[in-house]
Amino acid sequence: MENNSFVRKVNNIFDIPAEAEGLEVRIVLLGNHSLRIENHKGLRCYDIDKVVVQCPKGFLHISGENMLLTVFNREEILIEGSIETLSFKKEEV
Amino acid sequence: MSRFSGGCKIEVHEGNIAGFFNKAAEAGIDLSHIKREDGSFFAEVYIEDLPLLRRISEECGCFFTVKDERGLARVRRRWHSHKLVICAVVLILVTLAIFPNSIIQVELGNSVDGVDGDEVLAIAAEYGIKPTFFSSFIDYDGATAAILKAEPNLTWVGFQKNGVKITINMVERIAKNSDNDTIGDIVAKKDGFVRQVLVYRGQQVVALNTPVKKGDVLISGRVTILNRDNSESSFVTEAEGTVVGSVWYNGESYCSFVAVNKEETGRSCAYLVLEKPGDDVILWGTDKCDYADFVLEEGESLLNCHWVTIKEVRPVTHELTKKEAVIKATRDAKAEALKKIPKGAEVKNEKVEEVNVNGAIGVKYTVEVQEELGVFKKAQTGDES
Predict the structure, then answer these.
(1) Shortest Cα distance from B70 to chain A (angstroms)?
(2) Residue among B346, B339, B368, B337 nearest B250 (CA)
(3) Who has the most CB within 10 Å: A65, B66, B178, B369?
């Protein structure tokens, strides 16, 4: 944590965005049909109505319908479908 | 790793599927279109990532199967299944591309005296006109110029391409005969009045609408050219052209007011003649009559025989009116004038004049015709110099 706070201070001095350091997940929601997640830590659960993505500081729970992982690699996940809710949780379940 | 090998769709089932996808992503494998259907997961990956995915699936305790291939992999599979058809299509395309540009045979269409055919073919070959599998360069214009330069006996060279065969056609140069036989003028063959002149070769001498006399030069074979430095130079050639002119033909006839007609006396004799080649034979009757004047009448021919009747006539005089005399004289004068007109001449005008003669009527009939006036006349020896 000390290391992280030091990095954050340095980033604040140089006005570097937090997502660039890779410690924060970056989520881009386009309407309710496309969700782009960057700086993720992996996929925990996937079904057509529920996706759980591990983030640096917890788990991102996405619920919806007919969800499809259009892109999945170590940099980003692109989910397309009808997205209804997003929620951060400390626990996976 | 190249991404051109194509992609495929895989079906993953059993085991830790989320872990499988995570490890694959960690390993740098691009997964796309991950979808869950009927308890199985489907994803699209590149073909070259399959070995690594297989290792990861073993680690995660899951299985995957390749469902569908795309890109080059698909092409490769199709190639194996349609090898013969593809080979045939490629062969046809290559043939269509190569054969129109290939020459298998080059030959001479005709031979010309004094022209070496092998030399012509050799010159043509230098410009790409030779049997070759794929000719990218053929210079027809260059070959034509080179052949004409090398063979002065030729005046034209042409190349005819029929499929893969080229035929070289040649035309012999006909040397212009420059001796005295072909040098001369167009002169008037009779008196006339020039109406139209058309010069094909030579120089016009006579003006339009001027009278000419027989022997006058109409189109001269000596052509004078004005040079750029205002000096004149001349050369002689064979004059050629058409000169149409008016020519007048006359016919005269006189008719007395006293006309003599022949009148039958009623006496006659007849005989039957057998027509034989060369000589006729009298079958019946006689042709010996003591008539002072007579006329013959021949009957219709039947089976090489015909009747001939000899009728005695005597002269009977009677007086004509002036009108009748003029008509008769005019008819005779016209017939005489028309007899003089050359064949094919075009009658343009006719004129009738009465001539007063004591005791008779005279008529002068004049016909104006347009006809060719000129005739070629060879130059005399030394004229062309």
Answers:
(1) 17
(2) B337
(3) B369
